[in-house]
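Worked Example 4.2. Consider the chain below.
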Amino acid sequence: MAFNFARPTKSVGSKAPKLSVENLIIEFLQQLPQGTVIGSHHIQIDAPQWAYTTYKKRFNPDTFMRKFRGIKNEKTHMLKNAGVSLKEVSVFKGEKSWEIQHIS
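Applying the procedure from the previous section yields the following structure tokens:
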């Protein structure tokens, strides 16, 4: 499932976040609709494409995956602060996948 990047959006706010891979992943997840199911390949392919389309920043896809695992396993506070929750589901054969849930 490829995401539509025809009109990428940046975070709106008084202060732009630092463009770290972790912050880019959080922002990417925030923009996905409630109930969207993503797999590892979305983090490695779609998130870097979105980062380049939105901010003209290139990062290695493996870096995105490594940082995503860190956020998911050790820095869950980043997800919570962003109002995002990940529920592990089995949708893609042989690949971990998660359902995006927005917390209010």
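The longest strand covers residues 84-89. The chain has four helices and three strands. Compare this with Example 4.1 before moving on.
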